Amino acid sequence: MDTPTSRRISLRTADVQDAKKIHTLIQANLEEGHLLPRTLGELTTIDLIVSGALLLVLAIVGALSSAAAICQLIEDELEGLDVGVCLDYGHANLMGDLSDAIETVSGHLWTTHVHDNDGRNDDHRVPFAGRIDWDAAMMETQKIGYDGVLMFEVADTGDPIEVLKRTVKARERLEHMFVAF
User: Fold this and answer.
1) What is the pLDDT of residues 34-85, one digit of tens each?
2) Mapping DSSP to helix (H, G, I), strand (E, B) and coil, where does residue 159 land?
3) Residue 64 forms part of a structural domain
4) How far is CA 5 from the centre of its chain?
5) Contacting residues for 74 by C-beta, under 8 A, at least 6 apart
6) Strand 109-114 relative to strand 84-88: parallel, antiparallel, unpaired?
7) Residue 87's domain spans which residues?
8) What is the pTM of this model?
9) What distance in Å separates the CA atoms of residue 12 and residue 14, rounded to the nearest whole number?
10) Rounded distance, CA 117 to CA 94, Å?
11) How far is 1 from 6, CA to CA, in rounded Å?
């Protein structure tokens, strides 16, 4: 799992050339020491994954892991490229103000990763099993006009059937909240 200072950033693009340009830009910044990647031994995680839509996944630490820094990267360095943000509710919660993160990425939001945590550990709990205020999170998400996918990213914390059942119940609660506001 990522530590509180390490974040996975997903930038989605539907264009192969855009994805290659982004990957080249990020790699150059890494080599120049402007970005600090998460390391696994000597390995650096920068993945360019092709399947349907393209997804460039960066696992990085430090200043770029904030919502504001991600948006600034898109606006300053990736201007003109067809790229968006995957908002990870759990990671944003670990960084501090989830509502502020939602508002900050609003102009770039393409998809989400939905999971909960205790505010200290990135343990990918089923929503409502941690400390995220889901009423506020869904209200902010709806307020910015997002009506896309709420992709659950929960950890296997025991019996997989029970985890799935709790996830289905959480999804139903979140859908009800999303419509209620």
Assistant:
1) 444 433 223 233 444 333 344 444 444 444 567 887 788 778 877 777 778 8
2) coil
3) yes
4) 14
5) 11, 83, 84, 85, 108
6) parallel
7) 6-180
8) 0.71
9) 7
10) 8
11) 9
Give the whole-angstrom CA distance, residue 92 versus residue 89: 5
Question: Rg of the chain over CA atoms, in angstroms?
Answer: 16
Could you tell me if residue 1 is inside a domain?
no
Residues of the chain whose pLDDT is less than 70? 1-23, 25-65, 180-181
Q: Output the CA–CA distances (angstroms, integers) from residue 104 to 20, 85, 92, 175, in the order listed.
A: 26, 11, 11, 23
Q: What domain count does the chain have?
A: 1
Tell me the CATH number at 154. 3.20.20.150
pLDDT at 62: 46
- Residues facing residue 95 across a β-bridge: none
- pLDDT given for residue 151 in this prediction: 92
Q: Are strands 39-40 and 43-44 parallel, antiparallel or unpaired?
A: antiparallel
